[in-house]
Amino acid sequence: MSLDDSLRDSILKAIPNLRAFGISLTGNVDRADDLVQETMLRALKNIDSFEPGTNMSAWLFTILRNLFRSEYRKRKREVEDATGMYADSLKSQPEQSTRLEFEELRAALDKLPDDQREAVILVGASGFSYEEAAAICGCAVGTIKSRVNRARNRLAEMMSIDDLDDIGPDRETRAVLTANRN
């Protein structure tokens, strides 16, 4: 890419005004300098789209303003967290224990009789009502309720679940997950 001297001079001449405009938009000298630098890169990359004889400064200011607006829209979606407090409030359960529990559940389901496994999956996992599950299985509603109850009890026994606190994260993990809730 060759840039003739008059084009280069008009670009360089616009830099102080672009910088001042950038500072007025961002309120931050460093961000303004970054914005001007990005404007220069875009202008040089797209110099072929500049129409000779038109106002170079206006073209550069338009690029800068569009860059600022794009950056502004992007930053609006970001959460500023200078102190790290927001990040500290975000917690998630470690994946490995969830995966292990899922594998344990899958193995326990495989040990259930077919009719109980089918009933508990239809009602518990697929969200069908007892009536819908009974229609799918071609049996009475009471039979489905009985199969689901037996399956749940058997799964709880195989997975050593005594109460609802035994499901999900262990006590230590639950303590960490709930620690900073104030």
Fold and architecture overview:
- The chain has 182 residues and is mainly alpha-helical.
- It has two domains: 5-78, RNA polymerase sigma factor, region 2, helix turn helix motif (Rna Polymerase Sigma Factor, Chain: A); 95-178, Winged helix-like DNA-binding domain superfamily/Winged helix DNA-binding domain (Arc Repressor Mutant, subunit A), CATH 1.10.10.10.
- 70% of the residues lie in helices and 0% in strands.
- The protein is built from nine helices and no strands.
- The protein has helices at residues 5-26, 29-45, 56-76, 85-89, 95-111, 114-125, 130-137, 141-158, 171-178.
- Helix 2 (29-45) packs across helix 3 and helix 6 packs across helix 8 (141-158).
- The longest helix has 22 residues, at 5-26.
- The protein starts with a helix and ends with a helix.
- Residues 176-182 have low confidence and may be disordered.
Query: Level of helix content?
Result: over 70%
Q: Uncertain runs with pLDDT below 50, 5 residues or more?
A: 176-182
Number of strands: 0
> What's the overall geometry?
rod-shaped
Q: Which sequence of SSEs, written as H and E, runs from N to C? A: HHHHHHHHH
In short:
This protein is mainly α and 182 residues long.
